[in-house]
Structure formats: C-alpha cells, structure tokens
Automatic annotation (TrEMBL):
Domain of life: Bacteria
Alphabetized Pfam families for the sequence: OMP_b-brl
InterPro entries recorded: Beta-barrel_OMP, OMP/PagP_B-barrel
Domain called Outer membrane protein beta-barrel: residue spans: 6-174
Protein name: Porin family protein
Organism lineage string: Bacteria, Pseudomonadati, Bacteroidota, Flavobacteriia, Flavobacteriales
Protein's organism: Gelidibacter gilvus
C-alpha cells in the first residue's frame, strides 16, 4: 500500500514538471464491480452496478504519449472501493487514445478476516475527446492479485478471490 501511494505521489507531483501540457480534471460515471471466488474447479461470482467519481491528471510526455494518474471512489450497492490507476495513454489521433497500466484498488468496507482489502489490477481502455475539455472513457480492470489471504484458516484450500471492474465515464479537464 505504501509503495502504491508513493508511486501515485510520484506520478502526480514528479511528472507535473515534465511538460507544459499538464492538465487536471474530474471524471464520473457508471461502474460494474464483479467478484469471483473459485476453489477446486468450482466458482461463485456476482456483479454489482453503481457509480464512480474522482480526479484525473494528464501529463503529456510527448505529443502521442501521456501518463494519466487518477484517484477514483466507486460505490456499487454495498461495496465501496478506492481506485488509484497510473495509466499510459497512447494518442492514436488528436481525439482518440488507448489506455493501459496498473491500478491499485482498496476495499473501503470493514476488514473481513482472511480477505485482503488491497489488490492490483491490469487495466486497459480507451479515451475519446469530445471537445477541448470534455472526454469519454471506458476501461476494464483485471485483478491479478488474490483477495483470499494466506492465513491458517485457508491454508492448502486453493481458494482464490478476484474483483474485476468495468467503468464508463464522462470527464472534464480544466
């Protein structure tokens, strides 16, 4: 968790001096959180829909390559998460970009014994500039970590838990 926060701070503050093309903004939209627990060939899954809202920065490294760190809060039914993606954005055209990168996610729910509250996703998506300030964005995050803690109660069980996320939103850059 400390490493992720350090990476996010570096991305936001360290990269702000890279180019004069730094922008900051806000984004909100639809989120779908999908949880899956599997063990010994069987699995149980469930989806919850809700909203997300947060802040976004865009640091232009070059005309075509940008770094886009964000801090997003998502709520879907009873589940609340804090997402901290640090995405690379490749601009295919002046208006269309492809996104990919790591995303930390932290469950804001009360800690459950045997379940990790923090996970890492691999996220990919697309970004489309509607105007100079407004943009649309869609992304999917695949969790690569296991939410089931390595504890004595689950030792040798082979239980795996993952939380994947779909987000579609509208943003505004200042």
């Amino acid at each position: 968790m400390k490493k992720l926060m350090l990476m996010a701070a570096f991305a936001v503050f360290g990269l702000s001096n890279v180019t004069a093309q730094s922008q900051f903004g806000v984004m909100a939209g639809y989120t779908n959180i999908s949880a899956k627990v599997s063990a010994q060939g069987s699995s149980v899954s469930g989806d919850e829909s809700g909203f997300f809202v947060g802040g976004v920065a865009d640091f232009g490294i070059s005309e075509k390559f940008h770094i886009q760190p964000e801090v997003l809060y998502a709520k879907a039914n009873e589940a609340s998460f804090l997402y901290i993606p640090i995405l690379a954005k490749f601009m295919v055209s002046d208006a269309f970009g492809i996104l990919a990168g790591p995303q930390g996610n932290l469950s804001l729910e009360e800690k459950t014994n045997g379940v990790n509250s923090f996970g890492i996703d691999l996220t990919f998506g697309a970004n489309y500039k509607i105007t100079q300030n407004f943009f649309l964005e869609a992304r999917y995050g695949f969790e690569v970590t296991n939410r089931i803690a390595n504890s004595a109660e689950f030792e040798g069980s082979g239980i795996k838990g993952k939380v994947n996320t779909l987000q579609v939103g509208l943003g505004y850059m200042f």
